[in-house]
Amino acid sequence: MLTRPTLPPLLMLVLSVAAGLLLGLGQAPMGVWLATIVGVALLTWLMIGLRGRTAFGWGTLAGLALNTLTISWVSVLGVWVAVALVAFMALWWGLLGLIVSRLVTLRGWAFLVPAAWVAIEFGAGSVPFGGFPWLRLGHTTVDQPMSGFLSLVGVTGVSYLVALVGVLGLWAATTPTVRIKSIAGIVALFVVGGLANLLPQKQPEQSVTVAMVQPNVNRAEKGSSSYARSVTNNALSETIFATALARTQGEKVDFVLWPENATDVDPVNDAETRRLVELSAAIAEVPIFVGAVTDGPKPDTRQTSSIWWDPQTGPTATYHKRNLVPFGEYIPFREQLLPVLPILRQVGRDSVPGEGSGVVEVATGEYGHLRVGTIICFELAYDDTVYDLIRDGAEVIVSQSNTNTYVGTFEPHQQLVLNRVRAMETGREVLASTLNSYSAVIDTHGRIVEQAEELDAATLIATVPLRYNVNLSVRLNPTISWLAVAATLLALGATIVRKRPDPR
């Protein structure tokens, strides 16, 4: 059974904050992945011997430190928005602390504590309003050997392995009798993960060439009547440049990719916006995959959409974003909250979620039936939304984002890491197109082949293969979350049963 000396409250406070900061240092843009592993070990050690309420309190403090460091970028929407989000998300780490304080009393604690981390990530990414699955241990592995496991067990399984390495390190430090075995286990995980990264990727014979347009915007115009038009005007200008560049380089482009919100007005219903898109497609002489804000199915609603715009036939296949940002794209309990919190009027029209996968079947060039899968911005964080692309036969994956609100913060860096994680999980190159920050071409090993810079108008022309593989991660990952939840609940039940007095 694990033990530790009793620590004074001030030292507990300092160490809890340190644990949270260490956990956060592994996230982008810091990327100090070893710090996260140490943070797992430290937080677990601090929970040893604590009562439930005390463990919850110190865990919450660690969560406050972690989330303040990593997601306080949401303060661009308002300081109180950041305070509310950071405080709420910290409660999940408080719950984790409580659970860990119970699990470390069991014999199999070294394997149960990582399951608790996965269970908490699953809960935080599901509740409430679809959750906020932005910070996961698996996201810290993109530049270390264990990233090789992403194609095998997905980000959920890799989160378990990161936590396992942390607790094995703690076990080695506190229990001399298992030190060699624990260290051997850690080394084995890094070696196997590194070897998995070396597995060759089959190179299909067919490929598509995509011109990715990063239009850039005049941020000073945001909120003005001219902003919506200027975004689309910039997309047109950059499309003209991309077309000229492709032709001078002898590149035969199959389609042009515009980012989310490249048209901030519905291009189907608004005549001026439609004219700009049609002109762009006519100049490019190939379809444009347009990121657009469209009018919703009900009055005074909207949708965030990806529209395949053919130069001859106009708008055809369309996908509407499924995972919406509460209080950013829609207001939960709108009628009750608006009178109390008038600042929420800045959200504007409520967005309506789409249905089905983000795969559109389209025609371009020599491909009469090309299956393009798109992920729109925040959807990157949701496993099922991404995996549905593979299940539905996406041959190429694009990621369309509007990062304008968060330029200069940690958010675009974290989003780029999510794109890298998804490329490794799915075994697909990811073409990440943003409005004005870090558009990138990412290969199946999560490496950035080419990247644009923030606040630059840019064009990236990429040729990527059409792929049909379904990685083990896509099949296995959803099951891992539920297994972790079940294991955690059963283990907690065991601690409760063990505490009951003998009826004899």
UniProtKB/TrEMBL annotation:
Protein name: Apolipoprotein N-acyltransferase
One record GO biological process: lipoprotein biosynthetic process
Membrane topology: Multi-pass membrane protein
GO terms for MF: N-acyltransferase activity
HAMAP family linked to this entry: Lnt
Compartments (UniProt record): Cell membrane
Record-stated family: Belongs to the CN hydrolase family. Apolipoprotein N-acyltransferase subfamily.
Gene: lnt
Matches recorded under InterPro entries: Apolipo_AcylTrfase, C-N_Hydrolase, C-N_Hydrolase_sf, LNT_N
Organism from which the protein derives: Tessaracoccus bendigoensis DSM 12906
Keyword field: Acyltransferase, Cell membrane, Lipoprotein, Membrane, Transferase, Transmembrane, Transmembrane helix
Stretches that traverse the bilayer: 7-25, 31-48, 55-74, 80-101, 108-129, 149-171, 183-200, 479-497
E.C. no: 2.3.1.269
Function recorded in the entry: Catalyzes the phospholipid dependent N-acylation of the N-terminal cysteine of apolipoprotein, the last step in lipoprotein maturation.
Residues of the CN hydrolase domain: 208-466
Pathway: Protein modification; lipoprotein biosynthesis (N-acyl transfer)
GO cellular component entries: plasma membrane
Pfam families xrefs: CN_hydrolase, LNT_N
